Every structure is written in C-alpha cells, then in structure tokens.
Amino acid sequence: MSYFLRRTENNLWHGKFSTFPEDLITHAVSTRLGGVSKPPFDSLNLALHVGDERADVLANRKKFVQSLGFKVSDIVTPNQIHGDKIFRVDENYRGCGCENYADSIPETDAIITNTPDLPLMLCFADCVPIFFVDAENCAIGLAHGGWKGTLKKIAAKTLLKMKSEFGTRPKNCLIGIAPSIGSCCYEIGGEVIDKCKAAFPKNFDELLINRDGKIFLDLWRANVIQLLEVGVPEENIDVAGECTCCESSWYFSYRAAQKNNLDRTGRIAALIALKNL
Ligand SMILES: [Zn+2]
User: Fold this and answer.
1) CB 3.0-4.6 Å disulfide test: which of 10, 36, 168, 263 passes with 134?
2) Which string of DSSP letters, residue by residue, matches 99-166?
C-alpha cells in the first residue's frame, strides 16, 4: 500500500503515505470534507487568499491541525507564487501565515526544516504537493509544483537545498507525490508544451500525452524524473496516483471547478512536521 485515506476521530480524512516513518514525522493531505465553508469553498477550505470567509477558514484550519496534534498558531505557510524559491524555516517562523495571509513566508513555493514540532503547510487545488522525508538527518520539506514550478524543477531544487542545508543524501530521502491533477485531465496548450520540451529535452515524449489531438501533461512523472536525475532511487518515490480533477468530490480542483463554471474554489493542504523525539 502506498497512499491511503484514514478517517480521524473528529470526522476528517487524512491522506497518508504508508512509506513515511510514523515514529519520526506527522503528515497528512486534507480532503475537502468535514469543514464549515459554504459553496464554492465547501467545505474544508484551508486557504485564506481565495475569497472565502476568514472565520470559516480559521475554523477549518483549527479542525485540521488539531486532528494532527497542533494549534493553528504553530503552522508555517508561505505565499505561493508558482516560483522556485525554497526557504528554510525554524522556530522563529512559527505561526507565519497561520491566521493572516499577509504574514506568510513571502513568495516561496517550498519550505524545509529540521526543527521538530514545526508543521509546514502548503495549499493546493490541482498543483502537485511534494513531501520530502530525510530520516537520517531528521529533516523534512514540502514543495508546490504546478506546471510552472514543475518545469522550473522545484522538486529537484528542494532536494538539493536539503542536501546543502542538512546534508540530505538523495538515496536516503523518501518522497511522496500527493493527489493532484493527473494526465487524464491536465490538458495544456502551446506555451506549456514548448516550455515542457525545453525543460525536459530528453523526456518530453513520455510527459506529453497525445489523445485525440489534445495534449495532456503528466506532472507526476515530470516530478519523478527530476528527482531521479538528482539521485533519488525510484523505489523511494511514492506517487499517490490520485487525480484531484477526477476525484473532485474528495479534493478541491481548479479544473473541475472551471468545468462547472465556477471561477473560484477552495484549497486542500499538505502538512508535515518532525516529531520531537
Ligand atoms: Zn483526472
């Protein structure tokens, strides 16, 4: 088993990777179920910047992080801009972005830490959440890979940053690629196709899938390939393989919302923290 959903005591669901060491880290992917937000943010929207009622988001955050043993004031979360900046956080950043979007870690799409009990959280609606677990050096990371971040190789860069900051060895790092839009649904246009070919000159054939004259991008594989290139063994990379657009009753999906003529939707979150041993 790799990725699975587990129901919690307070009636939420945690998406989890069975490959991650439960004795060393706490982690979960949220679903959209069990929150208080109203449509189109129904119901466990965890993002403050999407137009939802702030009080509802904070109530949702409280429920989600409590289910993992934390307080809202513990979480560190960035203002994600589809870039490739990676930021190391420590105790000084506890609570950044927890209640106010304005004090999030600015313009950052991946955060890493070796501080225990400091939960890192990023928000998603189709983009790829990438978890990093280095049990050897007790370090973790979490990255946001939409098409821009993926083509900028944010996953590989996050790993290399963990290497320089914590001594992470790629061969000992575990990766989890969480639910996000799959190549079943991720149709792309000319600009993205060209950039994909430029970013993956050797592999674009397997990343760009042609169906009925339409081109679909395999973001999961694009992230796997860049991690293989920096030395992560394939057996260390766990791909959930669950498409948020196909499974939009479980997860927020920007593409699924668009299909339903909604211009806004909520965000799921990925959260990871080192346990204080
Ligand atoms: Zn799909």
Assistant:
1) 168
2) S-GGGSBTT-SEEEE--BT--EEEEESSSEEEEEEETTTTEEEEEEE-HHHHHTTHHHHHHHHHHHHH
Instruction: State pLDDT tens for residues 39-89.
Output: 999 999 999 999 999 999 999 999 999 999 999 999 999 999 999 999 999
Note if the pTM is more than 0.70: yes
Q: Is position 187 within any domain? A: no
Would you say 256 and 268 are in contact if contact means Cβ atoms under 8 Å apart?
Answer: no
Query: Which structural domain range is residue 68 located in?
Result: 3-182+235-274
Q: What's the CA gap between 245 and 250, in Å, rounded? A: 9
CA of 149 to the centre of ligand 1 (A): 20
Distance 184 CA to ligand 1 centre (A): 4
Residue 185 CA to ligand 1 centre (angstroms): 4
Contact, 74 vs 119, CB < 8 A? yes
| Centre of ligand 1 from the C-alpha of residue 179, in Å | 10
